[in-house]
Protein backbone atom coordinates (compact mmCIF):
# COMPACT_ATOMS: atom_id res chain seq x y z
CA UNK A 1 0.00 0.00 0.00
CA UNK A 2 1.28 3.47 -0.93
CA UNK A 3 1.29 5.73 2.11
CA UNK A 4 0.66 9.47 1.75
CA UNK A 5 3.40 11.90 2.84
CA UNK A 6 3.42 12.57 6.58
CA UNK A 7 2.83 16.31 6.01
CA UNK A 8 2.98 18.98 3.30
CA UNK A 9 6.67 19.94 3.14
CA UNK A 10 6.14 22.68 0.54
CA UNK A 11 6.53 25.58 3.04
CA UNK A 12 9.98 24.26 4.01
CA UNK A 13 10.88 23.80 0.34
CA UNK A 14 9.70 27.33 -0.40
CA UNK A 15 12.01 28.81 2.24
CA UNK A 16 15.02 26.95 0.91
CA UNK A 17 14.07 27.80 -2.69
CA UNK A 18 13.83 31.52 -1.89
CA UNK A 19 17.33 31.50 -0.43
CA UNK A 20 18.71 29.63 -3.42
CA UNK A 21 17.09 31.92 -5.98
CA UNK A 22 18.33 35.00 -4.13
CA UNK A 23 21.83 33.54 -4.34
CA UNK A 24 21.44 32.89 -8.07
CA UNK A 25 20.29 36.46 -8.66
CA UNK A 26 23.55 37.71 -7.11
CA UNK A 27 25.77 35.11 -8.75
CA UNK A 28 28.36 36.23 -11.31
CA UNK A 29 28.46 33.31 -13.79
CA UNK A 30 32.02 34.05 -14.91
CA UNK A 31 33.38 34.13 -11.36
CA UNK A 32 31.34 31.06 -10.44
CA UNK A 33 32.70 29.01 -13.33
CA UNK A 34 36.28 30.10 -12.59
CA UNK A 35 35.83 28.94 -8.98
CA UNK A 36 34.41 25.61 -10.11
CA UNK A 37 37.41 24.98 -12.38
CA UNK A 38 39.92 25.90 -9.66
CA UNK A 39 38.19 23.56 -7.23
CA UNK A 40 38.14 20.68 -9.70
CA UNK A 41 41.83 21.10 -10.54
CA UNK A 42 42.82 21.22 -6.87
CA UNK A 43 40.73 18.18 -6.01
CA UNK A 44 42.13 16.06 -8.85
CA UNK A 45 45.76 17.26 -8.82
CA UNK A 46 46.97 13.98 -7.28
CA UNK A 47 45.20 11.66 -9.73
CA UNK A 48 47.07 10.00 -12.56
CA UNK A 49 45.37 12.35 -15.02
CA UNK A 50 46.12 15.40 -12.84
CA UNK A 51 49.79 14.56 -12.48
CA UNK A 52 50.11 13.80 -16.18
CA UNK A 53 48.64 17.19 -17.12
CA UNK A 54 50.32 19.32 -14.45
CA UNK A 55 47.15 20.39 -12.64
CA UNK A 56 49.19 21.80 -9.76
CA UNK A 57 50.72 24.41 -12.09
CA UNK A 58 47.51 25.56 -13.79
CA UNK A 59 46.47 29.05 -12.73
CA UNK A 60 43.49 29.95 -14.89
CA UNK A 61 41.14 28.92 -17.69
CA UNK A 62 43.69 29.67 -20.42
CA UNK A 63 46.28 27.54 -18.64
CA UNK A 64 43.82 24.68 -18.36
CA UNK A 65 42.93 24.87 -22.04
CA UNK A 66 46.61 24.89 -23.00
CA UNK A 67 47.40 21.74 -20.99
CA UNK A 68 44.23 19.68 -21.44
CA UNK A 69 43.09 18.88 -24.95
CA UNK A 70 39.61 17.89 -26.08
CA UNK A 71 38.69 14.22 -25.90
CA UNK A 72 35.72 12.16 -26.95
CA UNK A 73 34.47 9.23 -24.95
CA UNK A 74 36.48 6.65 -26.90
CA UNK A 75 39.78 8.38 -26.09
CA UNK A 76 38.97 8.62 -22.37
CA UNK A 77 37.85 5.01 -22.28
CA UNK A 78 40.86 3.56 -24.07
CA UNK A 79 43.55 5.61 -22.34
CA UNK A 80 42.27 6.27 -18.82
CA UNK A 81 39.35 3.99 -17.90
CA UNK A 82 39.46 0.72 -19.82
CA UNK A 83 42.79 -0.56 -18.41
CA UNK A 84 41.33 -0.74 -14.87
CA UNK A 85 37.58 -0.89 -15.58
CA UNK A 86 35.23 -1.48 -13.94
CA UNK A 87 37.27 -0.55 -10.85
CA UNK A 88 38.27 3.09 -11.41
CA UNK A 89 40.41 4.45 -8.59
CA UNK A 90 42.50 7.64 -8.68
CA UNK A 91 42.54 7.56 -12.47
CA UNK A 92 40.83 10.81 -13.47
CA UNK A 93 39.12 11.54 -10.12
CA UNK A 94 40.36 10.85 -6.57
CA UNK A 95 39.14 7.75 -4.80
CA UNK A 96 37.14 4.80 -6.04
CA UNK A 97 34.32 5.55 -8.45
CA UNK A 98 31.10 4.25 -6.84
CA UNK A 99 28.98 4.17 -10.01
CA UNK A 100 29.25 3.69 -13.75
CA UNK A 101 26.24 5.09 -15.59
CA UNK A 102 25.20 3.29 -18.76
CA UNK A 103 24.37 5.96 -21.30
CA UNK A 104 21.64 5.44 -23.89
CA UNK A 105 24.14 5.30 -26.73
CA UNK A 106 21.63 6.45 -29.35
CA UNK A 107 24.15 7.87 -31.80
CA UNK A 108 26.91 5.27 -31.84
CA UNK A 109 24.62 2.30 -31.31
CA UNK A 110 26.41 1.10 -28.18
CA UNK A 111 26.31 1.91 -24.52
CA UNK A 112 28.96 4.02 -22.84
CA UNK A 113 30.13 3.67 -19.27
CA UNK A 114 30.28 7.10 -17.63
CA UNK A 115 31.86 7.49 -14.17
CA UNK A 116 29.55 8.99 -11.53
CA UNK A 117 31.27 10.12 -8.33
CA UNK A 118 29.70 10.92 -4.96
CA UNK A 119 30.32 14.57 -5.75
CA UNK A 120 28.41 14.22 -9.02
CA UNK A 121 25.52 12.52 -7.22
CA UNK A 122 25.31 15.51 -4.87
CA UNK A 123 25.61 17.98 -7.77
CA UNK A 124 22.78 16.27 -9.66
CA UNK A 125 20.61 16.21 -6.54
CA UNK A 126 21.23 19.93 -6.01
CA UNK A 127 20.30 20.65 -9.63
CA UNK A 128 17.08 18.72 -9.08
CA UNK A 129 16.32 21.01 -6.17
CA UNK A 130 16.89 24.01 -8.47
CA UNK A 131 14.17 22.67 -10.80
CA UNK A 132 11.66 22.86 -7.94
CA UNK A 133 12.98 26.28 -6.91
CA UNK A 134 12.31 27.74 -10.35
CA UNK A 135 8.87 26.15 -10.38
CA UNK A 136 7.95 27.71 -7.03
CA UNK A 137 9.24 31.10 -8.17
CA UNK A 138 6.84 30.99 -11.12
CA UNK A 139 3.98 29.37 -9.15
CA UNK A 140 4.18 30.59 -5.54
CA UNK A 141 0.92 28.88 -4.54
CA UNK A 142 1.99 25.46 -5.76
CA UNK A 143 1.94 22.61 -3.22
CA UNK A 144 4.38 20.26 -4.96
CA UNK A 145 5.47 18.64 -1.69
CA UNK A 146 1.91 18.12 -0.55
CA UNK A 147 1.93 14.82 -2.43
CA UNK A 148 4.31 12.42 -4.15
CA UNK A 149 7.02 12.98 -6.75
CA UNK A 150 7.04 10.26 -9.41
CA UNK A 151 10.39 9.70 -11.16
CA UNK A 152 9.89 7.46 -14.19
CA UNK A 153 13.31 5.98 -14.83
CA UNK A 154 15.38 2.86 -15.17
CA UNK A 155 15.75 0.08 -12.67
CA UNK A 156 17.43 0.72 -9.33
CA UNK A 157 18.79 -2.85 -9.47
CA UNK A 158 22.43 -1.84 -9.94
CA UNK A 159 24.74 -4.87 -10.07
CA UNK A 160 28.06 -4.63 -8.27
CA UNK A 161 30.61 -4.99 -11.07
CA UNK A 162 33.67 -4.41 -8.86
CA UNK A 163 34.17 -4.05 -5.10
CA UNK A 164 32.37 -0.81 -4.20
CA UNK A 165 31.33 -0.05 -7.79
CA UNK A 166 27.80 -0.47 -9.18
CA UNK A 167 26.61 -0.06 -12.73
CA UNK A 168 23.29 0.93 -14.27
CA UNK A 169 20.94 3.60 -15.55
CA UNK A 170 21.60 7.17 -14.32
CA UNK A 171 17.98 7.55 -13.21
CA UNK A 172 18.38 4.33 -11.23
CA UNK A 173 21.50 5.76 -9.58
CA UNK A 174 19.59 8.94 -8.74
CA UNK A 175 16.71 6.96 -7.25
CA UNK A 176 19.12 4.86 -5.19
CA UNK A 177 20.82 7.97 -3.83
CA UNK A 178 17.83 10.03 -2.70
CA UNK A 179 18.12 11.32 0.90
CA UNK A 180 16.87 9.00 3.63
CA UNK A 181 13.89 11.25 4.46
CA UNK A 182 12.66 11.71 0.89
CA UNK A 183 11.06 8.30 0.11
CA UNK A 184 7.94 9.31 2.07
CA UNK A 185 7.40 11.96 -0.62
CA UNK A 186 8.46 9.73 -3.53
CA UNK A 187 7.03 7.13 -5.90
CA UNK A 188 7.59 4.35 -6.97
CA UNK A 189 8.44 2.25 -3.93
CA UNK A 190 11.56 0.08 -3.95
CA UNK A 191 9.85 -3.13 -5.07
CA UNK A 192 8.58 -1.41 -8.24
CA UNK A 193 11.72 0.65 -8.86
CA UNK A 194 13.80 -2.54 -8.92
CA UNK A 195 11.89 -4.12 -11.83
CA UNK A 196 14.18 -4.35 -14.86
CA UNK A 197 11.79 -5.54 -17.58
CA UNK A 198 10.20 -2.36 -18.95
CA UNK A 199 6.86 -3.83 -20.01
CA UNK A 200 6.35 -5.52 -16.64
CA UNK A 201 7.51 -2.41 -14.82
CA UNK A 202 5.15 -0.14 -16.73
CA UNK A 203 2.19 -2.43 -16.10
CA UNK A 204 3.03 -2.57 -12.40
CA UNK A 205 3.39 1.21 -12.18
CA UNK A 206 0.08 1.79 -13.94
CA UNK A 207 -1.66 -0.58 -11.53
CA UNK A 208 -0.05 0.91 -8.42
CA UNK A 209 0.08 4.66 -9.16
CA UNK A 210 -1.88 6.63 -6.53
CA UNK A 211 -3.59 9.01 -8.94
CA UNK A 212 -4.66 11.77 -6.58
CA UNK A 213 -1.34 11.86 -4.70
CA UNK A 214 1.09 12.51 -7.57
CA UNK A 215 2.18 16.16 -7.67
CA UNK A 216 5.39 15.95 -9.75
CA UNK A 217 6.17 13.63 -12.68
CA UNK A 218 9.67 13.42 -14.16
CA UNK A 219 11.08 11.49 -17.11
CA UNK A 220 11.93 11.24 -20.80
CA UNK A 221 9.04 12.48 -23.01
CA UNK A 222 8.55 9.25 -24.97
CA UNK A 223 8.20 7.10 -21.85
CA UNK A 224 6.12 9.76 -20.04
CA UNK A 225 3.67 9.65 -22.95
CA UNK A 226 3.48 5.87 -22.75
CA UNK A 227 2.81 5.98 -18.99
CA UNK A 228 0.20 8.73 -19.18
CA UNK A 229 -1.57 7.08 -22.09
CA UNK A 230 -1.87 3.76 -20.26
CA UNK A 231 -2.99 5.50 -17.06
CA UNK A 232 -5.65 7.34 -19.08
CA UNK A 233 -6.88 4.09 -20.61
CA UNK A 234 -7.26 2.68 -17.11
CA UNK A 235 -8.61 5.72 -15.23
CA UNK A 236 -9.76 8.29 -17.78
CA UNK A 237 -8.40 11.76 -18.48
CA UNK A 238 -6.67 13.39 -16.74
CA UNK A 239 -5.10 10.28 -15.28
CA UNK A 240 -3.22 12.23 -12.58
CA UNK A 241 -5.71 14.91 -11.46
CA UNK A 242 -3.44 16.29 -8.74
CA UNK A 243 -0.39 16.74 -10.98
CA UNK A 244 1.14 20.23 -10.74
CA UNK A 245 4.49 19.86 -12.49
CA UNK A 246 5.78 17.66 -15.32
CA UNK A 247 9.57 17.76 -15.71
CA UNK A 248 10.87 16.49 -19.05
CA UNK A 249 14.29 16.12 -20.60
CA UNK A 250 16.59 13.84 -22.53
CA UNK A 251 14.91 14.27 -25.93
CA UNK A 252 13.23 17.09 -27.83
CA UNK A 253 9.86 18.08 -26.36
CA UNK A 254 8.22 19.14 -29.62
CA UNK A 255 7.30 15.68 -31.01
CA UNK A 256 5.50 14.78 -27.78
CA UNK A 257 4.14 18.10 -26.51
CA UNK A 258 0.77 18.12 -28.24
CA UNK A 259 0.12 14.47 -27.39
CA UNK A 260 1.01 14.87 -23.70
CA UNK A 261 -0.78 18.16 -22.97
CA UNK A 262 -4.34 16.74 -23.29
CA UNK A 263 -3.40 14.13 -20.65
CA UNK A 264 -2.44 16.79 -18.08
CA UNK A 265 -4.90 18.39 -15.67
CA UNK A 266 -5.75 22.07 -15.96
CA UNK A 267 -3.08 24.18 -14.31
CA UNK A 268 -0.30 21.60 -14.61
CA UNK A 269 2.89 23.22 -15.86
CA UNK A 270 5.82 21.69 -17.75
CA UNK A 271 9.49 22.44 -17.18
CA UNK A 272 12.34 21.32 -19.39
CA UNK A 273 15.69 20.16 -18.06
CA UNK A 274 18.93 19.24 -19.81
CA UNK A 275 20.49 16.35 -17.90
CA UNK A 276 23.21 14.04 -19.14
CA UNK A 277 25.08 11.13 -17.61
CA UNK A 278 28.14 13.40 -17.72
CA UNK A 279 26.55 16.34 -15.85
CA UNK A 280 23.35 18.32 -15.32
CA UNK A 281 23.70 21.12 -17.83
CA UNK A 282 20.70 23.46 -17.63
CA UNK A 283 17.17 24.10 -16.36
CA UNK A 284 14.30 26.12 -17.75
CA UNK A 285 14.03 29.17 -15.48
CA UNK A 286 11.32 30.80 -17.61
CA UNK A 287 8.46 29.61 -19.78
CA UNK A 288 8.28 26.88 -22.39
CA UNK A 289 10.58 27.67 -25.30
CA UNK A 290 12.38 30.59 -23.59
CA UNK A 291 15.62 28.72 -23.07
CA UNK A 292 17.37 26.90 -20.25
CA UNK A 293 19.67 28.48 -17.69
CA UNK A 294 23.17 27.00 -17.55
CA UNK A 295 24.10 25.47 -14.17
CA UNK A 296 27.28 27.38 -13.39
CA UNK A 297 27.90 26.36 -9.76
CA UNK A 298 26.96 22.67 -9.68
CA UNK A 299 30.26 20.84 -10.05
CA UNK A 300 30.84 21.21 -13.81
CA UNK A 301 32.99 23.62 -15.78
CA UNK A 302 31.47 24.14 -19.21
CA UNK A 303 33.21 25.01 -22.47
CA UNK A 304 31.74 25.60 -25.90
CA UNK A 305 33.38 25.05 -29.29
CA UNK A 306 31.85 26.37 -32.52
CA UNK A 307 30.45 23.30 -34.27
CA UNK A 308 32.24 24.13 -37.49
CA UNK A 309 35.60 24.06 -35.66
CA UNK A 310 35.11 20.95 -33.54
CA UNK A 311 37.08 18.58 -35.73
CA UNK A 312 39.61 21.18 -36.85
CA UNK A 313 43.27 21.25 -35.80
CA UNK A 314 42.88 24.08 -33.26
CA UNK A 315 39.24 24.60 -32.24
CA UNK A 316 38.40 27.76 -30.32
CA UNK A 317 37.34 26.93 -26.76
CA UNK A 318 34.87 29.43 -25.32
CA UNK A 319 33.46 29.53 -21.80
CA UNK A 320 30.83 31.71 -20.15
CA UNK A 321 33.16 34.73 -20.31
CA UNK A 322 33.43 34.56 -24.11
CA UNK A 323 30.29 32.88 -25.49
CA UNK A 324 28.22 34.73 -28.08
CA UNK A 325 24.45 34.40 -28.61
CA UNK A 326 23.31 32.88 -31.89
CA UNK A 327 26.32 30.61 -32.46
CA UNK A 328 25.94 26.82 -32.59
CA UNK A 329 28.38 25.35 -30.09
CA UNK A 330 29.44 21.82 -29.22
CA UNK A 331 29.33 21.29 -25.44
CA UNK A 332 32.55 20.39 -23.59
CA UNK A 333 32.46 19.02 -20.02
CA UNK A 334 34.96 19.17 -17.17
CA UNK A 335 33.38 17.60 -14.12
CA UNK A 336 33.58 16.41 -10.55
CA UNK A 337 33.41 12.84 -11.88
CA UNK A 338 36.77 13.06 -13.66
CA UNK A 339 35.87 14.25 -17.14
CA UNK A 340 38.35 16.75 -18.57
CA UNK A 341 37.76 18.59 -21.85
CA UNK A 342 35.19 15.92 -22.69
CA UNK A 343 33.20 16.35 -25.92
CA UNK A 344 29.65 15.67 -24.78
CA UNK A 345 28.13 15.26 -28.24
CA UNK A 346 25.37 17.86 -27.82
CA UNK A 347 25.04 21.21 -29.55
CA UNK A 348 23.52 24.37 -28.09
CA UNK A 349 22.87 27.97 -29.02
CA UNK A 350 22.87 30.75 -26.42
CA UNK A 351 20.09 33.29 -26.12
CA UNK A 352 21.85 35.45 -23.53
CA UNK A 353 25.17 35.69 -21.67
CA UNK A 354 24.18 36.92 -18.21
CA UNK A 355 22.64 34.73 -17.12
CA UNK A 356 23.80 32.23 -19.73
CA UNK A 357 20.59 30.83 -21.18
CA UNK A 358 20.61 28.31 -24.04
CA UNK A 359 18.57 26.20 -26.41
CA UNK A 360 19.52 22.63 -27.25
CA UNK A 361 19.97 22.35 -31.01
CA UNK A 362 20.99 18.73 -31.55
CA UNK A 363 23.78 16.21 -31.39
CA UNK A 364 27.16 16.40 -33.11
CA UNK A 365 26.78 12.71 -33.94
CA UNK A 366 23.36 13.37 -35.46
CA UNK A 367 24.82 15.53 -38.21
CA UNK A 368 24.79 13.79 -41.57
CA UNK A 369 27.37 14.11 -44.31
CA UNK A 370 27.55 10.64 -45.80
CA UNK A 371 27.76 12.16 -49.30
CA UNK A 372 29.19 15.62 -48.55
CA UNK A 373 25.81 17.23 -47.82
CA UNK A 374 26.77 18.55 -44.35
CA UNK A 375 23.33 18.57 -42.73
CA UNK A 376 23.08 19.39 -39.04
CA UNK A 377 20.66 17.65 -36.71
CA UNK A 378 18.87 20.95 -36.23
CA UNK A 379 18.39 21.38 -40.00
CA UNK A 380 17.09 17.83 -40.32
CA UNK A 381 14.51 18.21 -37.56
CA UNK A 382 13.45 21.70 -38.67
CA UNK A 383 12.81 20.45 -42.20
CA UNK A 384 10.70 17.57 -40.95
CA UNK A 385 8.55 19.64 -38.58
CA UNK A 386 7.97 22.28 -41.24
CA UNK A 387 7.10 19.77 -43.95
CA UNK A 388 4.78 17.64 -41.83
CA UNK A 389 2.96 20.69 -40.46
CA UNK A 390 2.25 21.88 -44.01
CA UNK A 391 0.98 18.43 -45.04
CA UNK A 392 -1.04 17.78 -41.87
CA UNK A 393 0.99 14.68 -41.02
CA UNK A 394 1.47 13.95 -37.30
CA UNK A 395 4.89 12.48 -36.56
CA UNK A 396 5.01 10.06 -33.63
CA UNK A 397 8.65 9.00 -34.05
CA UNK A 398 11.25 9.03 -36.80
CA UNK A 399 14.77 8.18 -37.79
CA UNK A 400 16.70 8.74 -40.99
CA UNK A 401 20.00 7.78 -42.55
CA UNK A 402 22.00 7.27 -45.75
CA UNK A 403 21.57 4.59 -48.42
CA UNK A 404 23.31 3.83 -51.71
CA UNK A 405 21.12 3.47 -54.79
CA UNK A 406 23.40 2.42 -57.61
CA UNK A 407 26.04 5.12 -57.97
CA UNK A 408 23.97 7.67 -56.04
CA UNK A 409 23.34 8.25 -52.42
CA UNK A 410 20.01 9.15 -50.88
CA UNK A 411 18.41 9.79 -47.52
CA UNK A 412 15.79 7.37 -46.28
CA UNK A 413 13.31 8.71 -43.71
CA UNK A 414 11.38 6.22 -41.57
CA UNK A 415 8.45 8.14 -40.12
CA UNK A 416 5.92 6.69 -37.68
CA UNK A 417 2.49 8.31 -37.90
CA UNK A 418 -0.96 7.49 -36.56
CA UNK A 419 -2.63 8.40 -39.85
CA UNK A 420 -1.69 10.16 -43.07
CA UNK A 421 -3.55 11.18 -46.23
CA UNK A 422 -3.09 9.24 -49.47
CA UNK A 423 0.19 9.98 -51.19
CA UNK A 424 1.62 11.56 -48.04
CA UNK A 425 4.95 9.71 -48.27
CA UNK A 426 5.78 11.07 -51.74
CA UNK A 427 4.58 14.56 -50.86
CA UNK A 428 6.61 14.52 -47.66
CA UNK A 429 9.73 13.39 -49.53
CA UNK A 430 9.34 16.27 -52.00
CA UNK A 431 8.74 18.79 -49.23
CA UNK A 432 11.78 17.60 -47.27
CA UNK A 433 13.91 17.79 -50.40
CA UNK A 434 12.79 21.36 -51.11
CA UNK A 435 13.28 22.59 -47.54
CA UNK A 436 16.73 21.07 -47.15
CA UNK A 437 17.86 22.42 -50.51
CA UNK A 438 16.58 25.89 -49.63
CA UNK A 439 18.36 25.92 -46.28
CA UNK A 440 21.65 24.17 -47.02
CA UNK A 441 23.85 25.02 -50.02
CA UNK A 442 25.86 21.78 -49.82
CA UNK A 443 22.71 19.68 -49.95
CA UNK A 444 21.39 21.72 -52.89
CA UNK A 445 24.68 21.40 -54.78
CA UNK A 446 24.85 17.63 -54.36
CA UNK A 447 21.24 17.28 -55.46
CA UNK A 448 21.81 19.39 -58.56
CA UNK A 449 25.00 17.52 -59.44
CA UNK A 450 23.19 14.20 -59.20
CA UNK A 451 25.33 12.83 -56.37
CA UNK A 452 22.24 12.74 -54.15
CA UNK A 453 19.05 11.08 -55.36
CA UNK A 454 15.68 12.39 -54.11
CA UNK A 455 14.93 11.32 -50.55
CA UNK A 456 12.72 8.34 -49.81
CA UNK A 457 10.05 8.47 -47.08
CA UNK A 458 8.55 5.30 -45.64
CA UNK A 459 5.57 5.78 -43.34
CA UNK A 460 5.30 3.30 -40.48
CA UNK A 461 2.24 2.47 -38.37
CA UNK A 462 1.91 3.63 -34.77
CA UNK A 463 3.90 1.51 -32.36
CA UNK A 464 6.65 0.54 -34.82
CA UNK A 465 9.49 2.22 -32.96
CA UNK A 466 8.31 0.92 -29.59
CA UNK A 467 8.34 -2.61 -31.00
CA UNK A 468 11.82 -2.03 -32.47
CA UNK A 469 13.17 -0.67 -29.18
CA UNK A 470 11.64 -3.65 -27.36
CA UNK A 471 13.26 -6.10 -29.80
CA UNK A 472 16.67 -4.46 -29.38
CA UNK A 473 16.43 -4.39 -25.57
CA UNK A 474 16.29 -0.59 -25.40
CA UNK A 475 12.80 -0.03 -24.08
CA UNK A 476 12.29 2.40 -21.19
CA UNK A 477 14.72 4.13 -18.86
CA UNK A 478 16.90 6.68 -20.61
CA UNK A 479 16.94 4.95 -24.00
CA UNK A 480 15.88 7.12 -26.92
CA UNK A 481 15.09 6.65 -30.59
CA UNK A 482 18.08 7.91 -32.63
CA UNK A 483 16.93 10.68 -34.95
CA UNK A 484 19.87 10.25 -37.32
CA UNK A 485 21.86 7.05 -37.90
CA UNK A 486 24.78 8.37 -39.92
CA UNK A 487 26.53 5.02 -40.39
CA UNK A 488 25.08 3.39 -43.52
CA UNK A 489 25.55 -0.18 -42.28
CA UNK A 490 23.87 0.54 -38.93
CA UNK A 491 21.06 2.38 -40.67
CA UNK A 492 20.58 -0.53 -43.06
CA UNK A 493 20.22 -2.93 -40.13
CA UNK A 494 17.77 -0.61 -38.37
CA UNK A 495 15.65 0.06 -41.46
CA UNK A 496 15.39 -3.62 -42.31
CA UNK A 497 14.36 -4.45 -38.74
CA UNK A 498 11.72 -1.72 -38.71
CA UNK A 499 10.29 -2.70 -42.08
CA UNK A 500 10.05 -6.35 -41.01
CA UNK A 501 7.93 -5.57 -37.94
The CA-CA distance between the termini, in Å, is 39 Å
Strand order of the largest sheet: 6-3-7-8-9-10-11-15-14-13-12
Which class best fits the helix and strand makeup?
alpha/beta
* CATH class bucket of the largest domain: Alpha Beta
**Which runs of at least 5 residues are low in confidence (pLDDT < 50)?**
105-109
Protein architecture, described:
The chain is α/β, with parallel strands linked by helices and 501 residues long. The chain folds into 3 domains: 26-92 and 294-364, no CATH class; 119-283, Rossmann fold; 367-500, no CATH class. It is built from 16 helices and 18 strands. The strands form 3 sheets. Strands 6-3-7-8-9-10-11-15-14-13-12 form an 11-stranded mixed sheet, sandwiched between helices. The protein has a 4-stranded mixed sheet with strand order 2-1-5-4. It has a 3-stranded mixed sheet with strand order 16-17-18. A hairpin with a 2-residue loop joins strand 16 and strand 17. Helix 1 packs across helix 6, helix 9 (198-208) crosses helix 10 and helix 13 (424-439) crosses helix 14. The model is unreliable at 105-109 (pLDDT under 50).
